[in-house]
Write a structure and sequence with these properties.
single chain, alpha/beta, eight-stranded mixed sheet, 16 helices, 8 strands, 37% helix, globular
């Protein structure tokens, strides 16, 4: 039924016109224009699958809206009520198929085939939790043991500037090496005793410490203690008494060789690494560490101030090499506290690599809250949070150090 919008009298209301042609109504005029429009609509409806003028057979208006059907039923696309299609609309059935509620043929409706995006199945193993678990297993030493050096490597971790990560580097590199089957001794030469705290070794007043070794010639074996519950890791703790060692050693003959003599008397046949953590100065304690070691591991913070102290340390190391230890050399440089958000960190890293070349480890230690939290639990970040970015970075740096020993880096 169509509603005619043409009034029957001067003021008469609109009335229903039951005799109107199917194509007339909703404001469409009668006559030749209407006939041409209806014929064009029929042809267009047959050609494009029923999308004709409103009210024409096979159009959208004669589909589920007029028949009272639910528009959500059937498949997506244009729906046409087959019961109301006339015999002259056979072309429409050819385009729609056997059922008026079926989807239109894409070649007929749009002239092109639909784009099909293949669904890529998700790998159930490749998830954030799975990746974190895999990284944690690698940090905890779940793979093959790392290669052992031909002989024990004695490395001094030194930088006269404070806060560059000397103690953090010594503790976490040692823990990572021990996690992968190597035996490591950490000698704490810093009177603050931070390395002893991080390795969960007692260093209160009265405990045998490195002070007794340097000042009283006590054997190093008497002060070495296992570090926490990590097998293969040992520590020679430092107490606050060590702060006065530099003054007490001033009148002693050959005061620069005190640590060297202690290490020579210590049985290092079962050790792979000896890491000496130095205080932030170039005093007698750092001098003893440089004379006793064969290599210098230089941690450099990715900030401008860290670069100023590097040259002074290199000058001191050169004096030690000429006068006391001909084999001393800077074998490893580690960039620490890297903040990728700043251009300064990137510039410092580029300058360090340009100056030291192949001695710089490819691994860069980023800033990490977990690294700072671990010492408060008496742990290294390797055992505190093995899935953290800091633990993964220090593990990769330790792996480079291990490969460096066998020339496979």
């Amino acid at each position: 039924m169509a509603l005619s919008y043409y009034p029957q009298g001067p003021a008469g209301p609109p009335t229903a016109d039951r005799s109107a042609a199917p194509g007339v109504g909703l404001g469409w005029p009668e006559g030749a224009l209407t006939a041409r429009t209806r014929s064009a609509a029929s042809v267009g409806a047959a050609r494009i699958g029923g999308l004709g003028w409103p009210g024409s057979p096979g159009s959208i208006m004669s589909g589920p809206i007029e028949s009272g059907q639910d528009a959500g039923q059937g498949s997506r696309g244009v729906q046409v009520d087959e019961a109301r299609s006339e015999a002259g609309d056979g072309e429409v059935h050819g385009a729609l198929g056997s059922s008026g509620s079926e989807r239109l043929d894409p070649e007929v409706s749009r002239g092109t085939r639909p784009v099909i995006v293949p669904e890529i199945p998700l790998d159930p193993v490749d998830t954030p939790i799975a990746r974190a678990a895999e990284a944690a297993v690698g940090v905890r030493g779940g793979g093959q043991p790392w290669p052992r050096p031909p002989r024990c490597r004695i490395m001094t971790i030194a930088n006269q500037k404070g806060g560059v990560g000397k103690t953090t580097t010594a503790v976490n590199l040692a823990a990572s090496l021990a996690q992968h089957g190597l035996r490591v001794l950490v000698i704490d030469l810093d009177p603050q005793g931070n390395a002893s705290t991080a390795l969960d070794v007692a260093h209160n007043v009265g405990v045998p410490s490195v002070y007794d070794v340097l000042v009283d010639d006590r054997p190093l074996a008497d002060v070495v203690r296992p570090a926490g519950e990590m097998p293969g890791l040992f520590c020679a703790p430092a107490t606050i008494d060590l702060a006065g060692a530099e003054i007490e050693l001033v009148p002693v003959v050959a005061r620069e060789l005190r640590l060297t003599r202690a290490l020579k008397a210590y049985d290092m046949s079962n050790l792979d690494y000896v890491l000496v953590d130095c205080p932030p100065s170039l005093g007698l304690l750092t001098l003893n560490a440089l004379v006793a070691a064969e290599e210098v591991l230089l941690p450099i913070q990715c900030e401008y101030y860290a670069l100023e102290g590097v040259q002074q340390l290199l000058n001191t190391a050169e004096l030690v090499r000429v006068n006391f230890n001909p084999g001393l050399h800077v074998s490893t440089v580690l960039l620490t506290m890297y903040d990728g958000r700043t251009r300064l960190a990137s510039d410092v890293a580029d300058d360090v690599r340009a100056h030291f070349g192949a001695s710089v480890l490819s691994t860069i230690i980023p800033r990490s809250v977990r690294v700072s939290e671990a010492p408060s639990r008496g742990q290294s970040v390797i055992s505190y949070d093995p899935a953290s970015s800091g633990a993964i970075a220090y593990t990769e740096a330790a792996h480079e150090l291990a490969l460096q020993s066998v020339g496979a880096r």
